[in-house]
Amino acid sequence: MEAENHKIEWLEFDLLLEHPDVDAKVFTRHGGTSKGPFFSLNASDNVGDHPDNVKSNRELIKDIMQVPKLVFANQTHSTDMKRVEGNESRVNADILFTTKKNVALAITHADCQAAIIFDPSKKVLALVHAGWKGLVNNIYQTCIEGLKQEESCRVEDLIVCISPCLCSDHFEFKDYEKHFPEKYFSFQIKDKHFDFSAMAKSDLLALGVLEQNIELSGICNSCNLNDYFSYRNDKKTGRNATVAYLKS
């Protein structure tokens, strides 16, 4: 489901719209202040954009979300998982989770997956930044096992929604046999091109997430450059933001 407000546009997930106690949005590149290759709603402060533009863009996102602040992940393609209490502005991890109300978690991405994981029973929220390195290193398993350990979440209760990411036309991996475990070989759609979303979904199903609780955006960044940033396509470019929080 797509929506817009004052030219800022975002994607929402049907599975999460059924739950009024969570708000989650994947923002497109429209409606911001950045120029050139970062046009226009770039949310990342480490890609070469002017800091004032990034600050303005984040303020616009914060206002749309109607939260006091955004807590961004400082992403390093790790599988580190950190609890967010709300007093942070940046957290060094690729997995953020919280049980605090009105604490907005934020991931920036251009081709990688931003996954929103929500437990409506325990009222626990997590955001995951997953590229191919994250998948290979079992980032979804790390997140789900962490939620089970830290918050006694049941995997069958979890709702998982995955942002736009590269489709098989653009997710090319020439050295896949060197880096991918064999479980991913069957997701090769054509020579050295893989179905990135299907790989993630397979991992989630293997972990026990119910199929009806998984929603994939079905959108490719590189196929939709007017709406989304793509590092694979442009190299020097901005990053989209995926933001979610538990409502009070």
Question: Any chance you could write out the topology, listing elements then pairs?
Answer:
Blueprint: E1 2-5, E2 8-11, H1 14-17, E3 22-27, H2 51-65, E4 70-73, E5 81-83, E6 90-91, E7 95-98, E8 104-109, E9 113-119, E10 124-130, H3 132-136, H4 139-151, E11 159-162, H5 176-179, E12 188-190, E13 193-194, H6 196-207, E14 214-216, H7 231-234, E15 240-246
Parallel strand pairs: 4-6, 4-8, 5-7, 11-14
Antiparallel strand pairs: 1-2, 2-3, 3-15, 7-10, 8-15, 9-10, 9-11, 12-13
Strand residue content: 25-35%
**Residue share in helix:** 10-25%
State the domain count. 1
One letter per element, helices H and strands E, the order comes to: EEHEHEEEEEEEHHEHEEHEHE
Q: Total strand count, please?
A: 15
Largest sheet: 7 strands, mixed
**Which regions have little confidence, pLDDT < 50, spanning 5+ residues?**
none
Q: What spatial form do the alpha-carbon principal axes imply? A: globular
CATH-assigned homologous superfamily? CNF1/YfiH-like putative cysteine hydrolases
Give me the secondary-structure category.
alpha/beta
Total of helices: 7
Radius of gyration over C-alpha positions, nearest whole angstrom: 17 Å
